[in-house]
Design goal:
It is built from nine helices and seven strands. It is α/β, with parallel strands linked by helices and 265 residues long. Helix 3 runs parallel beside helix 4. Bound molecules: nicotinamide-adenine-dinucleotide. The site of nicotinamide-adenine-dinucleotide (NAD) has 27 residues, from helix 1, strand 5 and helix 6.
């Protein structure tokens, strides 16, 4: 199928480099004709994000730190002035102090709990509200990125798991709020990918390797596969789907116990 996203304009938030999940998604939707705008966090990141954006023909590349609500507002003012409307949104933003992405969840500090929740969960609500205001009467689509440690405990993911659980609940509430306007809100629960954010988690390499090995497909997922699933959720192909947490994790989430031969290995 071709041109699935032709005529659609979307905001991509969360490209840090060419390993970012947001970058995999941007490539997939651009290849299907979408017109894009990107945000970046801080000048150091601009040097990596601007050339990536240019390679897709994107000339709207705006600074945004979600801890600073004025910078979020500026992004939407710029989009209103440039496009006057928005058809889809990709929120691929997460952060927690890496000193607390190891050891016990019980030791999470109050300060890092609040900051993690603001950046990794509440920013989606604030951004979704602004994006919805720009979406046309025909509706729109939004996605965010989550991880299976929202539902089950695992070592080191700690406060990020709690924030992802709240983010997934936000997806359902936002889908409920915006449904009457034809705006769909979904999340992709991605299997482990080696990114900047991913590498901040204690013992990431060993744990991610375990998950990949013991998934039904016996391997990790690729940026292209995440891009393909995002394309489905952002395009009209998924017209009847909202409030969904869509797992793209080689099936790891369905496994209670590895196969006997894997237990012995
Ligand atoms: P990444 O490091 O490439 O992207 C994280 C992005 O969050 C960066 O662009 C960073 O600038 C942005 N960010 C952090 N704090 C911000 C702030 N205050 N304001 C604006 N932007 C901010 O890593 P990624 O793995 O592509 O992460 C994207 C999303 O995918 C995150 O929500 C992450 O939790 C989620 N996710 C990642 C994995 C994985 O294994 N990598 C698995 C499941 C879900």
């Amino acid at each position: 199928m071709q041109d699935l996203m032709k005529g659609k304009r979307g905001l991509i938030m969360g490209v840090a480099n060419d390993h970012s999940i947001a970058w995999g998604i941007a490539k997939a939707v651009a290849a299907q004709g979408a017109e894009l705008a990107f945000t970046f966090q801080g000048e150091a990141q601009a040097k990596r994000v601007k050339p990536l954006a240019q390679s897709l023909g994107v000339d709207t590349v705006l600074p945004c730190d979600v801890e600073d609500i004025a910078s979020v507002d500026s992004v939407f003012e710029a989009l209103r002035a440039k496009w006057g409307r928005l058809d889809f949104l990709v929120h691929a933003i997460g952060f927690s102090d890496k000193n607390e992405l190891k050891g016990r969840y019980a030791d999470t500090s109050r300060e890092n709990f609040s900051r993690t929740m603001l950046i990794s969960c509440f920013s989606f609500t604030e951004i979704a509200k602004r994006a919805a205001e720009l979406m046309p009467e025909s509706g729109g689509s939004m996605i965010t990125l989550t991880f299976g440690a929202s539902m089950r405990a695992m070592p080191n993911y700690n406060v990020m798991g709690v924030a992802k659980a709240a983010l997934e609940s936000s997806v359902r509430y936002l889908a409920f709020d915006f449904g009457a306007r034809g705006i769909r809100v979904n999340a992709i629960s991605a299997g482990p990918i080696r990114t900047l954010a991913g590498s901040g988690i204690g013992e990431a390499r060993a744990m991610f390797g375990f998950m990949q090995k013991h998934s039904p497909l016996g391997r990790g997922v690729t940026l292209d596969e995440l891009g393909g699933s995002a394309l489905y959720l952002l395009s009209d192909l998924s017209g009847g789907v909202t409030g969904e947490i869509h797992y793209v994790d080689s099936g790891y989430n369905i496994v209670l116990m590895p196969r006997p031969d894997e237990l012995k290995a």
